[in-house]
Amino acid sequence: MTLSFAPKDAEAWPLYALEPEDVDVWAAQQNDETQRWLKATGFSGAIGSVVLIPGAGGAPCAAVVGYGTAEQRKRHRFVLAAAVPGLAPGTYRIEQGPSQQDMANECLGWLLCGYSFNRYRDSSRKTARLLAPREIDADRVEIIANAEALTRELVNTPAADMGPEALEFACHKLAGQFGAQINVTTGDALLENNFPMIHAVGRAAAQAPRLIDMRWGKDGPMLTLVGKGVCFDTGGLNLKPGGSMGLMKKDMGGAANVIGLAQMIMALDLPIQLRVLIPAVENSVSSNSFRPQDILTSRKGLTVEINNTDAEGRLVLADALALADEEKPDMIISMATLTGAARVAVGPDLAPFYTDDETLAIELEQSGKREADPLWRMPFWEPYETMIEPGIADLDNAPSGGMAGSITAALFLRRFIDDCPRYAHFDIYSWQPRPAPGRSKGGFGQGPRAILGALGQALDL
Question: Distance between terminal CA atoms of the chain?
């Protein structure tokens, strides 16, 4: 599926996105028939409202959609997208509506309305197309939209067809598209190459665990993305109840998000050296599953007491982060569907992130607002360090008590970063529980657009 604007030479109907206070002003400038039609429909400029203006012969000649008030728009990420399902199939050009500052995001939302998950059932539908406004970078918007579609597709695909092998294949496909180099360490070779925790978590599954290592770009600052690729999480021997296992196909959402972000970076040809590390595993139950009370020795040499096999994501990330840190890149970003505690704290819309770098935190927060990809900074709270120190080993993968679960997980991961000057960790949900304008129910990207928008200043590009 490719999300794109209409061809530049396509015939298009004009579209007017009106705030409530502008409806009467706009109507007064139209002919009598249009004024009567608008009045008869009761159009008020409410978000999501649509009126097709009939022309000669009854065919539409224009469309008027509601853009709401400034206060109402604060409750919506993509306002214009709310009207797209109500528009007749055809092509439209925006004549009035979003400000220049908001135009690119509104156009992105429109394109994302065209995404549907069609792998098992054709649910595609004809949707209204948009001519790219002159004031936006249309190529950039299309690149971002299609990277988001890739992330959604990966998360939406069930584990039967998106296990470690399929996730590796997706990375090979992306690498081939952009001329990136890729190396994969699989099965017992993980032990031989000192990735013991990735091996321990994934060894019980039918498909062997693996570490995917992709590189692209030869010049510029070094950026390493690390994504949690737990393709399905049963909880291991600490088996999840059925209700908690239902969405575990999305436990590779961190990997899906860094893959989408990597596609954006490569397609935009940013002047950086990119590395993507994805520990791809399935946390399963078998005779050789790792056990509660086991003590694992990580790649870094830190020992980890296993107090819950369902806290496996931080284990596979730890080995990958240690590898990333050894190269001393300019920045490391990890992304993972790591804790339920993050969802309790901020819900499904916000992506919590952690960093000790104040400048980077500001850049990410500001970019999140600009790019309609909202973030919320969480603290690396030093007094909680003792909660991840069990006494019998260097670290505890699942502190008892249930308090501050997202923070303690982030503190755990930070222990594996020593030499990178800028590190940020994202504890994302990567799932849209209910459909919203531009956001279909199911997998979706959280954080990549904000990260992309912050890279220029963060890496001094």
Answer: 31
